[in-house]
Design a protein that fits this description.
The protein is α/β, with parallel strands linked by helices. It has helices spanning 26-39, 58-72, 87-100, 117-129, 142-145, 151-157, 174-183, 197-202, 217-229, 232-249, 256-266, 285-303, and strands at 9-12, 43-46, 77-81, 104-107, 135-140, 163-168, 188-191, 207-210. It has twelve helices and eight strands. It is globular and about 50 Å long.
Length: 304
Amino acid sequence: MDRFDKYRGIIPAFYACYDDAGRVSAERTAALASYLAGKGVKGLYVGGSSGECIYQSVEERKLTLESVMKEVGDRMTVIAHVACNNTADSMYLAEHAQSLGVDAIAAIPPIYFHLPPYAVAQYWNDISGAAPDTDFIIYNIPQLAGVALTVDLLREMRKNPRVIGVKNSSVAAQDIQMFLAEGKGEMIVFNGPDEQLLSGLAMGAAGGIGGTYAVMPELYMKIYEYFQKGEMEKALEIQNICCGIIYDMCTAKANLYAVQKEILKSFGVNIGTVRRPLPGMETGDQKIAEACAEQIRASIQRFC
């Protein structure tokens, strides 16, 4: 077993879990964590985009991670995204995550102000320094953060021995290859865009961290399994089905996560809806969610 084995596989990006009044719910958070652990996924990525982190307070994010770790922290890999739009809060969450025993912390770059690369590196190194005994993963999502990870910036970050990988959510699968080449076998890259999991694996990704994994983990685990076996046609068939379901979910007026939370309700897991300003379910969206849930059920029955 190498140091990266605990990160290889399918890791759902964990959803924000609210009660009926819109407050973060420890009980519903634990229920979702237990549900996903029961599916056999490799781990959970907590507090990222899918966790609506930019719309939550520091205390809410702490509660979410505490609830996840209490429920499944001894059973699976947990990566905690700790970035806030200021260094102090990010360091505070990093220290908190380490105190709970997470496997790794992760961070996007600061958003809104476009900082020079050396300032982004300082931000990440400050966060990592607050959790000196914990692996650090760079989260590259330039289409939302407005800042892209470059090979030069990665080279600078690799001077930090705690940096073990990149969660790459850029559209270009080529970025995975470039980052791995710079890592020289001493770091890993996770595929981010769910629609190209198979492409990312082919480029060398250790696994995937994805925002739609939680509603159909069985299908993504099957893609990973077939890829490991070299059964590429079977893997591609399921990848295409997953893409189709994603495209259908995106036809709703509601935010994608609102649709997915509605799908989870049909699977017996109620974690509320999304937090404003994200749009919730609108007229007609329920039929879309029901149709997607049926597609997922049928695909799982067929392939899993």
